Known about the structure:
- This protein is mainly α.
- The protein contains 9 helices and 2 strands.
- The model has no long low-confidence stretch (mean pLDDT about 90).
Amino acid sequence: xxxLHSINDAINKRAGRDLLPSIVVSMGILLIVxxxxxxxxIIFAISTWVAVxxxxxxxxRAYKFGGIDISELPLYVAxxxxxxxxxxxxxxxxxxxxxxxxxxxxxxxxxxxxKDFVKRSTAAVFAxxxxxxxxxxxxxxxxxxNPISKVFTLVVLVSFNDTFAYFSGVLFGKxxxxxxxxxxxTWEGLSGAIxxxxxxAGLVFFYILDDYWWLGALVGVLGVITATCGDLIESxxxxxxxxxxxxxxxxxxxxxLDRIDSLLFTAPSVWFVFELIQHFKL
Length: 282
């Protein structure tokens, strides 16, 4: 038992987060995701809405810490409108609601105060696009034929990328990939993520989706790219605002946004791939 704690402490020190709480939280999130999808997709949609609002709250508090003060209410309303329009109007609802939400929020911010308008409105538009708009693609996957299989594919891509990049980086990482953005990310970690995620996605496509394994392998590589970019962008935001984590609500992970940053960037590409498969009957 002492050896186990020693190994865990060594991993925590190298990787910069607590491993065991992180695993427990991850399992709880998976239970909520697939349990809600199994019971009723609308429960999943409500859970997504709650997560998005919490993530928006984290982003706005991070903004405030960085000297950007934005009213919370208009962004919560915008997020709710975008997700509702997506659920009932699919991709058309997502695109139109974004086009409606952004100018209305900008006008609200202008009427509230013209001071630092460019900084405040730019930050608000970024938050709307980054969180509820990208999260809308998760709802598109959940509100389509075979939602569990499609969301499972997304979860496999993101979790395999995060998990194997983490362990490969801890065990073999020597060459930083983006030292000025995220010093703990290494090329060795990225390589491990590519190998594991490619294999995992290929198996999911072949055994779960009854499709070509090589198509899944390609999607796996795409998933690593998008998930890594999402993680790097959130790291850049935190570095710019001079904060370590977006929040503390999830032990071992930080905040909601710390957990879903990779997922947000991967969901649109997964949705697009399934649209291509359906269109070209692959």
